[in-house]
Specification:
single chain; about 70% helix; mainly alpha; about 150 residues; two-stranded antiparallel ribbon
Length: about 150
């Protein structure tokens, strides 16, 4: 029996995490930290809550990754001048200096993943994945509504 679409995606995701663990180690990053690091590069100054939403993680996972990046000297927190109870998150100069190499390695992995696929198939795949993402958002929204009804 051929694996389901979900199974293929899960396998690809797990294998990607294994690869990233080794590929990111020279930069002092883990596979789990990578989405937080990348997001902060493009959206510096966000709060921890905003970062959680950006990477679609839970609050505890975000807290662990932020703490780890901070301990490694790759992230710093600054008090929000408009609300001193909040911290804004920024990459350090050390983290920014590594970004080009990390980004290059991630793009190379992306290129290798689609190697051998004709351009038309790549476009079809991108379209299909985008549609699947939209569908998953709808499934999650329905789940949230059902859970909300159960607690009401």
């Amino acid at each position: 029996m051929e694996p389901s679409t979900l199974r293929w995606i899960t396998l690809l995701s797990r294998k990607t995490q294994v690869y990233l663990t080794g590929a990111l180690a020279p930069y002092g990053l883990t596979a789990a930290e990578q989405p937080f690091y990348m997001s902060l590069y493009y959206a510096e100054g966000v709060t921890q809550e905003e970062l959680t939403a950006m990477v679609y993680a839970d609050k505890a996972s975000t807290a662990r990754r932020v703490k780890s990046l901070e301990e490694k000297g790759l992230l710093r927190r600054e008090k929000d001048p408009a609300d001193r109870r909040r911290n804004r998150l920024y990459l350090t100069d050390q983290a920014k200096a590594r970004f080009a190499a990390v980004h290059r390695d991630l793009l190379e992995l992306d290129r290798r993943l689609v190697e051998g696929l004709p351009q038309q198939d790549r476009e079809t795949l991108a379209h299909a994945l985008h549609l699947m993402q939209k569908n998953m958002n709808q499934v999650l929204e329905e789940q949230r509504r059902k859970e909300g009804e159960g607690h009401g």
